Amino acid sequence: MSINHAIVAEEVVKHFGDVKALDGVSLAAEQGKVLSLLGPNGAGKTTLVRILTTLLKPDSGGVRVGGLDVLRQKQHVREIIGLAGQNAAVDEILTGRENLVMVGRLYHMPRRDAKNRAQELLEQFSLTDAADRPVKTYSGGMRRRLDLAASIVARPNILFLDEPTTGLDPRTRIVMWDTIRTLVSDGTTLLLTTQYLEEADELADKIVVIDHGHVIAEGTADALKANMAADFIDITVANPQQTAKASQLLQSLSDESPHTDEQRGHVSIAVESGAQSIAEVVRLLDAQSVSIAELNLRRPSLNDVFLSITGHEIVEEEAKPKRRGFGRRRSA
Amino acid sequence: MTLNTASVAPSAGLSETGLFQRFLWNFTDTFVVMRRNLYAYQRQPELLVFATIQPVIFLLLFTYVFGGAISFSTGGDYINFLLPGIIIQTILFASANTTVGLSVDLSKGVIDRFRSLPMSRAAVLAGRTSADTLRGLFTVLIMIVAGYIIGFRFEDWGSGLLGLALAVAFGYAVTWISATIGLFVKDPEAAQVAGFIWLFPLTFASSIFVPTRTMTADWLRTFAENQPVSVVANTVRDLMTGTVNPDEIVISLLWIAGIVAVFLPMAVWRYARVASR
């Protein structure tokens, strides 16, 4: 392969006791691009990030970051990467400024440089007002921003963000997206993990979908959607008790069986051509006097992609039985 | 997959860092982390206040409650026997803080930050043990002031301060045991107990409060006379009361060196393997 890859994982395996956190994961992030690792909780995303950032040793497999062997050149790898984890890794007792200066000093920047860099980052991340307050007084969003700032103190070429917006409110999340976009606009390679399809869609050049320690799909957001070659029609029936009936009636329009939510009266069907099928939908339902409250035609979302590959929704419910072996297993 | 690394060469200067520079970083990184831990004490002054009041209370209780009874077997003023011992006790108890502090750090994300930085591996630990040793020194200085108020006197200041230095060095060694425990007990609340529990037998079955020859069971007396806390406490006491012989200084220093030689590498080894979540 002649493309330059800043991050490479090859057949990485990691077990925790009986649990296979990673079961042969391979991926490669092109230099200067954003790779998103998308998957539900427990898919193995954090484990992979910890391995790539020298925090955890894989049972087998190879990892290279910035052309360095992560297993053999840990200390060198640490000099060129930045990491922001899902628990904001900042010190609560120190102030925001002290946190950043400390990180700079631990990158062995001269004291004056570390101080200047801290000031610069506080301004960039709109933290100047709170700069000299202990972090324990910060809001969740401010902590994340500080954490992100700490991860780029040494201007790393390669950045790892592990679920940077998990737990943030929607407005703060959008601000974070803007910040992240600015960060990578100068050619930083970014590996971003997320369980939000929207986030991967917004930020990533390439998406790797991971579930139960396996890579189950990869490509651009558009390519993943294009594979499905279908439109979706979402119907909400006026009387939720007619959901099953509606689903039955619409079965004939699609190769796949419709997805239903009986409580809300939702039926969703994948069709070859939405424009042609929509009239058919109305006719079929009307003929059996199933009245429609709402009707939408849309392109497939990543959630549909995930559903069609794995057979389950991306946000898993608690205690849902684990399913394995759905769909294709990809090895890059 | 073959990888063309031509244009993903790591930032310049990586391999130019000399071994000597890397060696120096052990100390500068330790200093940075130590400052961070001292900030914590500065920001939570109540921690420092209680850490100081507690040993002063011990000092007063032992002097005035038990002092009368014990002084029959120590001869002379009990305060001159007690203060050097209670300095060791203070320093031992202060080291429990290392266990708790480390396990708290481990339970938080900040340790992941440290581990992902190109810093010295030992610095997170050494920064903790040295900050706690400094805190121990601070408390001990206050104890000496309190001791002077109630009648303690150094035989001569030179060897007295030498005794103080030996006590602090022993405290530093013990913080490495505490650090090791903290790295095995990751739960902060368990660490609260684990940090102290091993200190009680070592503290009380020693020559800190009473002369070991007064202990009633032979096996206990044998243990108490030979365990490091007694060895160091006796040496510190002899330095402070002007009756030291050079052999005991050597044996004390050997204990200190031995403890560091075993527990520093063990703690560093453990730290490298501990995943915080």
Notes on the protein architecture:
The complex is a heterodimer of chains A (332) and B (277). Helices cover 33% and strands 26% of the residues of chain A. Mean pLDDT of chain A is 85; it is low at 316-332. Chain A folds into two domains: 5-225, 3-Layer(aba) Sandwich (Rossmann fold); 229-299, YebC, transcriptional regulation domain (Alpha-Beta Plaits, 2-Layer Sandwich). Chain A is α/β, with parallel strands linked by helices and 332 residues long. Chain A starts with a strand and ends in a 22-residue tail after the last helix. Chain A contains eleven helices and 14 strands. Chain A has helices at residues 45-52, 74-80, 96-106, 111-124, 140-151, 170-184, 197-203, 221-226, 243-250, 274-287, 302-310; strands spanning 5-16, 19-30, 34-38, 60-65, 68-69, 81-84, 158-162, 189-194, 206-211, 214-219, 231-237, 259-261, 266-271, 292-298. Chain A has a six-stranded mixed β-sheet with strand order 6-7-8-3-9-10, sandwiched between helices. Chain A has a four-stranded antiparallel β-sheet with strand order 2-1-4-5, covered by helices on one side. Chain A has a four-stranded antiparallel β-sheet with strand order 12-13-11-14, with helices on one face. In chain A, helix 3 (96-106) packs across helix 4. Chain B has 277 residues and is mainly α. Chain B has one domain. Helix content of chain B is 77%, strand content 0%. Chain B contains eleven helices and no strands. Chain B has helices at residues 19-43, 45-74, 78-107, 110-116, 123-149, 157-184, 188-197, 199-204, 218-226, 228-241, 246-273. Chain B is elongated, with a radius of gyration of 22 Å. Chain A binds chain B through residues 1-6, 8, 10, 28, 31, 50, 53-56, 64, 66-68, 75-76, 78-81, 83, 85, 87-94, 98, 102-103, 105-108, 134, 150, 157, 332, and chain B through 1-11, 14-15, 25, 28-29, 32-33, 36, 39-40, 43-44, 108-119, 123, 275, 277.
